[in-house]
Amino acid sequence: MRSAITIAAKDLRQRIRDRSVFVIAFLVPFGLAGVLSLTLANVDEDAAFTATFGVVDRDGGEISAGFVDLLRGLDFVTLREVDSVARADALADGGDVDAAFVIPEGFSARAGTGQGGELQVITNPGESIGPLIATSLARSFASEIDAVQVAVATVLGSGEHDPAVVAELVERARQTSPAAVVDPDTAESRQFSATTFYAAGMAVFFVFFTVEFGVRSLLEERQGGTLARLLVAPMRPAWIIGGKAIASFLVGLVSMSALVIASALALGADWGNPVGVALLVVAGVLSAMGLTALVATLAKTPAQASGYASTVAVVLGLLGGTFFPVSQGPSVLANLSLIAPHAWMMRGFQDLAAGGTAVDVLPSVGAVFAFAAVLGGIALVRSNRLVPR
Q1: Angle at 145 (CA atoms; ends 63, 83), nearest 5 degrees
Q2: In terms of DSSP bridges, do strands 99-103 and 120-123 run parallel, antiparallel, or are they unpaired?
Q3: Is the pLDDT of residue 136 over 90?
Q4: Which of 37, 143, 184, 292 could lock 48 by a disulfide, CB 3.0 to 4.6 Å apart?
Q5: What are the φ/ψ torsions at residue 55 (nearest 5 degrees)?
């Protein structure tokens, strides 16, 4: 064990002298997280849902006026008055409005006498949420009118002709409650802030580059002839591999921990429960070590190992959602991302940022540890390609 610690200390001293480790492990991930969060933080934060609706009021009656007042009272709706049905159709088709309401002439009179007024909704084919809300608003308003008509008919049928009662029921048609409201805090509370997302993404992405040097140094020492000297020394080959692994683990652990702390203090990232974060960090470093070690066993030279490991890290990093939320893509992408440990780590960090506890992220932690065990186990079996027994 002392031999492994000696090798690890030697490797750490070499990497500290080689200042590139500071660039890959600290400066680049922190710099990218800062630039991306500062540049894109305002793209989605504090951006509540809004919709633009058009309305063609060819009726001008009390009931149609009540519907228009309802639309104006919705704080997420921008209402445009349109002078013709053709113009409303053109605006919806061109994407200038999410949907347009057409209130035909005589709507209030027919609705008030139970003859069935028709409220038309023209939707924008390029939108999904806005047209659904518009249709819901129209249906809700029509249902409210139906309810008022039933109430009025019931009162009149019972022999009650008090004008005050009838007037009160009719007034309800103009004072319908909003059929749809938007709570911008609900969705926001369940997802990363932009700062936390990019800090977590860069930490996860670059740890797979940071731990690479441990395995690559084995190939470098084999190529330089120093590995042969170590193998004839009074130590087990396992201590050589162990020393490299310890050095890689410490660099990866310090790198991710430093980025977590620095992003929280300097950028305002909210990582959530520290115990859960620590579990994910440790699991992530181990999975990165297992993946890079396995890829390196397929290489013959340090350059090949670096190229293979970098390619796999970039592909899995993109697939795992370290640069963009996987949920924004098609469902097949979300399912495919689960083959990458990056996706499980990002899921765990998202749960913690949303207020989850260490227990809540145990499934994600378990999945990442499973990646580490499987990949690391295969790499260990193939390690005789790097360190002959």
Answers
A1: 35
A2: antiparallel
A3: no
A4: 184
A5: -140, 130
**Is residue 56 helix, strand or coil?**
strand
What 3 state SS string does 309-363 have? HHHHHHHHHHHCCCCCCHHHCCHHHHHHHHHCHHHHHHHHHHHHHCCCCCCCCHH
Task: Identify the CA nearest to 191 among candidates 47, 336, 330, 340.
Answer: 47
C-alpha to C-alpha distance for 132 and 200, rounded to whole angstroms: 34
Q: Judge whether residue 375 has pLDDT over 70.
A: yes
When mean pLDDT is compared across 91-95, 143-147, 304-308, the lowest value belongs to 143-147
Q: How far is CA 243 from the centre of its chain?
A: 37
Q: For residues 372 and 148, give the distance between their C-alpha atoms in angstroms, rounded to a whole number.
A: 65
Q: With contact defined as beta carbons under 8 Å apart, do 227 and 345 qualify? A: no
With a CB cutoff of 8 Å and minimum separation 6, the contacts of 23 are none
Helices (H), the chain: 2-17, 20-22, 28-44, 62-72, 85-93, 107-112, 129-157, 163-172, 184-188, 194-210, 212-224, 226-232, 237-262, 274-296, 302-319, 331-336, 341-353, 362-381
Pairing of strands 99-103, 51-57: parallel
Q: Which one is predicted more confidently, 196 or 234?
A: 196
Question: What average pLDDT is seen over the chain?
Answer: 78
- As given in the structure block, the two tokens for residue 220 are 């470098």
Domains, the chain, in order of start with CATH, read: 2-44+189-385 (no CATH), 51-181 (3.40.190)
What is the per-residue pLDDT across 248-267, written as a single tens digit (0 to 9) for each?
A: 888 889 889 988 988 888 88
Residue closest to 200 by CA, chosen among 15, 22, 364: 364
The mean pLDDT of 289-299, rounded to a whole number, is 85
Asked if 299 and 385 count as a contact pair (C-beta separation under 8 A), the reply is: no
b vs e for 80-101, b when ≥16 Cβ sit within 10 Å of the residue's Cβ? eebeeeeebbbbbeeeebbbbb
CA atoms within 13 A on the CB side of 357: 1
- The CA angle 345-347-349, to the nearest 5 degrees, is 70
C-alpha closest to that of 350 among 202, 206, 201? 201
- Smallest CA-to-CA distance from 146 within 175, 176, 114, 169 is with 114
Spatial neighbors of 185 by CB under 8 A, at least 6 apart, are: none
